[in-house]
Structure to design on (366 residues):
């Protein structure tokens, strides 16, 4: 969202809340209450404009050259504000703010590879991956700004994640959910949008009637910013036709408001529990099930990516390889079965006759 108020920066946290800050070179960073244009917002904003300039690092929290100052500088950089979507900003802030609480007063120039490796070794592989992404981005920014001479993340060894990630729903699990939640319920609507579009949670909760044109659902992905046009299958059309048209988004809370990410996840977990499904059945698993179905239907990697919007094709290749293995195995066994059924049997009389003929031949030699 673009603001016309000068020196104001906005960002959306992972819960969908919008935060506004006054950011001006050589002025203190200040959080602004309320919405732009409101009385409380403008009062604090004008006071910030009229405030005195301060030298960078004057506050204890952002002492020049400290980790805290480095993080504040990174938040104001283009790499953070322009190249990361709001959801990714929220995830990265969670990591960096925890790092700031523990090490904010230390000098960023003193950060070494052994420090990063030691902290990383104390984390689980999954948590360590997200943590390392955020720290590496911070360090790269510091190198670009001259706060660090060398990149201490180079050579750091990350633990391999021995997991296939989110569970891919099976056909039996999909059928069980559909049996419990009939067409016309919010639960079935969310399920159908996830399964028949193959999109992520953040994109699904923003979908609405205005995105449907010429029998296609038009989506601009929040994470990748890719624009997709997804054909609406009859199964999804039936679910959408049974749902009211009086909201900007298909999915809303009971109060008619748009879902935020965490609230939606908690709600969908309960919907799965009502269907008697195990906890590993998550909403993201529907996206993986959609890719699996496409692969099993014989779609190529690029055809699947045209629906899912994956930037990296490695994830999709796993589905196509698994589908190819199943198809080739079935074809091989079918071919073996056909060969067995078509093979002529040699009768005992033939073998006896052959033996008799050879005996006559031998007697002739004598």
């Amino acid at each position: 969202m673009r603001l016309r108020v000068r020196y104001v920066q906005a960002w959306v946290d992972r819960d969908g809340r919008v935060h506004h800050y006054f950011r001006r070179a050589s002025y203190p960073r200040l959080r602004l209450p309320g919405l732009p244009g409101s009385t409380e917002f403008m009062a604090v904003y004008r006071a910030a404009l009229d405030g005195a300039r301060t030298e960078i690092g004057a506050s204890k929290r952002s002492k020049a050259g400290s980790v805290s100052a480095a993080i504040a500088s990174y938040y104001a950089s283009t790499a953070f504000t322009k190249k990361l979507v709001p959801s990714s900003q929220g995830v990265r802030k969670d990591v960096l703010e925890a790092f700031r609480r523990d090490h904010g007063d230390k000098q960023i120039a003193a950060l070494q590879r052994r420090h990063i490796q030691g902290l990383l070794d104390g984390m689980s592989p999954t948590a360590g991956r997200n943590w390392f992404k955020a720290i590496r981005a911070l360090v790269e920014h510091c190198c670009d700004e001259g706060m660090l001479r060398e990149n201490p993340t180079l050579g750091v060894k990350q633990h391999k994640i021995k997991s296939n990630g989110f569970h891919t729903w099976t056909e039996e699990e999909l059928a069980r959910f559909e049996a419990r939640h009939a067409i016309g319920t919010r639960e079935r609507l969310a399920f159908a949008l996830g399964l028949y579009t193959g999109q992520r949670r953040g994109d699904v909760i923003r979908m609405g009637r205005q995105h449907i044109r010429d029998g296609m659902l038009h989506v601009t992905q929040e994470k990748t910013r890719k624009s997709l046009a997804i054909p609406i299958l009859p199964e999804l059309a039936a679910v959408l036709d049974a749902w009211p048209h009086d909201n900007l988004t298909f999915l809303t809370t009971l109060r008619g408001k748009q879902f935020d990410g965490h609230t939606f996840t908690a709600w969908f977990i309960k919907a799965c529990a009502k269907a008697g499904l195990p906890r590993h059945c998550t909403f993201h698993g529907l996206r993986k099930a959609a890719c699996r179905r496409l692969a099993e239907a014989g779609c190529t990697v690029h055809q699947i990516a045209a629906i899912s919007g994956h930037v990296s094709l490695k994830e999709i290749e796993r589905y196509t390889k698994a589908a190819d293995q199943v198809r080739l195995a079935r074809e091989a066994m079918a071919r073996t079965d056909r060969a067995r059924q078509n093979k002529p049997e040699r009768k005992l009389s033939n073998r006896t006759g052959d033996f008799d003929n050879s005996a006559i031949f031998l007697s002739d030699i004598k």
